[in-house]
Every structure is written in structure tokens, then in C-alpha cells.
Amino acid sequence: LGGGLYVASPTLALQQVARTVPQPKLISLIDEFCGLYAVHHPTRRERRVLDELVAAYRTSRHRGAPGAYACYNEHGRFETTHTDNSAEAWLPAFDRSGNPTNLWKRPPLIRTEQFVSNLEALRGRKGSSLSRRAGTLALDGSGSPLETCLALLLFLPEQYGGEGWPAPQLNRRIVFDPDARKLAGMGSCVGDMVWERPRAIIEVNGFEYHADRNGFFIQSGRTAALQSMGYVVLDVNYRQIADLDQLETMLSVFSDMLGFPLHARTKTFLARREELHRLLMSGFRSRTGA
After folding, report:
1. Residue 186: how many CB atoms within 10 A of its CB?
2. Greatest Cα pair distance in the chain
3. What does the DSSP assignment read for the chain?
4. Residues 6+ apart with CB under 8 A from 256
5. What is the spatial distance between Cα 227 and Cα 180, in angstroms, rounded to a whole number?
6. For 7-38, how does the pLDDT look when each residue is reduced to its tens digit (9 = 90+)?
7. What CA–CA distance (Å, rounded) separates 88 from 105?
8. Backbone phi, psi, residue 133, to 5°
9. How far is CA 74 from the centre of its chain?
10. What is d(CA 283, CA 290) in angstroms, rounded to the nearest whole number?
11. Is the pLDDT of residue 217 over 50?
12. How confident is the model over 182-197, as pLDDT tens digits?
């Protein structure tokens, strides 16, 4: 940037913290970099600037400024709303009351396969092997911290405390057929976690941290539309994820509906799962919503 100041690339930034955080936390950071959001905790001085930016955004939001809501198109191809990471591509996220949060929507900074490939240039440096292992377990397209949290609980291998289920496509666009369009009142939607085999969707309904704020209010029509097209639609919210007992019940329901088996509830596995859950949810404790 000049004056002896440098900015680390996404790959280098992640590699530099690889040895300072537990592996699941590193995977969640990679999911954020490869996802559709950024979490920022501003200083007081930054907050003053951001307040002005948010006010300017509010006055321009009706001009149709796009948001990075989808990561995959209806054909399953990686295709975000934006193809660059210009300042215009970063948009503030608001909670259900219309207040700004510490979540920003933006296109992915990097893709998981690109991250793993870039690590070849860092081979032999401290943390590169840890980063490579984490990169192979990360997913593209997460839309919020809560989606990332659930993804790790469902899709990480059992040695980490995850269920090891087949990974879906995160934030994939689904185009409605004519009948479904009438039910939904729109031409398409974005599913948080989408499988085509089985034809199923998991919707992560966070109150504060949800990529598509309006989506929370149109669930009934959208769910009926998706069901009319043969999708099994499963919903989970922050409280059900945060409470381990509720989560266990939801996982049992999801397992039956999706046909994905739960890992054997051995003492060792349950201890690993509890530790994974504690680690992932600890990041929400200082937040006022989910």
C-alpha cells in the first residue's frame, strides 16, 4: 500500500493464524473467507465512519444495489452475484429491526480449491500443513456465522465431533416452476443448504445473522413452493443449534428425513461433539442475536 505497509493475501492471512486456533476454528475462518459474509468488530472511530456509510446506503438501497446472496446458480455452478470485490460489493447486514449488525455481505474472498492450491507456495512454512488439512474440509458459499457453525457440526468427520454427512451446496439458487412461482410470489429463492440427491434443503433461520433478511418473513410461501417441486424443507434456528439437547433432537429428525445416518453415540464421540459445539458457539456469546 506504500509507506512500508502491506496487506496479507487471504491465503497468507489464514495460514498465519493456523497454529494459534483449534482446527475447527480455522475451518470456520476459511468458510468465512470462502463465504458470502464478513464479521467485523469496529473500534469507536471506525463506528463513526461506518454509521455514515450505513446512512448513505439506506438512502441508496432502493436503487437496486445487488447483494451477494447466492454462491451457486440454479445449475449448481459457482456464480456469485458479484464477480469482483470492489467497495460497492460490500453491503451492511441489518437485523429484523432494521439495525446494522457487525455482519457484512460480500462475494467470497477466495474459493476453497484456490486456497488449497495457493498453499503449495507456502509449503514448509509454519502452519501450512494445518491450513492444507483445514482447507480440504472447508466449504464454499456459507452465508452467515450460524450457517458455518451448523455446517461444521453436520459435515466434519467424526474425529472432530461432526456427523460426517455428505456436504451440500451452500446458498444455491433455485428457480421456481410456474406453479411454485404462484405459491411463492417470486421467481426464485436461495436455499441455505441444498442437496439434489436427496432433493432436500436445510434453512438456517438466524434472527440477526441471516444472509437474506427478507427470507425470514416469506418462509411459509417459499416452503410450500419448494415442497411442490419435490424438496424436503427442514428448518433450524439459533436456539435449536445453541442448545445441545435441542440440537440432538433436530439431528435425529434430519437424519430420518434425509436418510443420512447419525454417528454412533459413543462416549468418545459425544465428548468430541460437545467440545466442537462449545468451541463453535463461543463466538456467539458476545453477540446480541444469531
Report:
1. 14
2. 60
3. -BTTB----HHHHHHHHTTTS-HHHHHHHHHHHTTTEEE----HHHHHHHHHHHHHHHHHGGG-------SB-TTS-B--S-SS--GGG-EEEE-TTS-EEEEEE---SS-HHHHHHHGGGGTTSTTHHHHHHHHTT--S---SHHHHHHHHHHHS-GGGT---PPP-EEEEEEEPPHHHHHHHTSSEEEEEEEETTTTEEEEEE-SSS-S-GGGGGSHHHHHHHHHHTT-EEEEEEHHHHHSHHHHHHHHHHHHHHHTPPPPP--HHHHHHHHHHHHHHHGGGTT-S--
4. none
5. 9
6. 999 999 999 999 999 999 999 999 999 999 99
7. 11
8. -65, -40
9. 18
10. 10
11. no
12. 999 999 999 999 999 9
Counted residue by residue, the chain has a size of 290
Residue 91: all three cell numbers together: 453491503
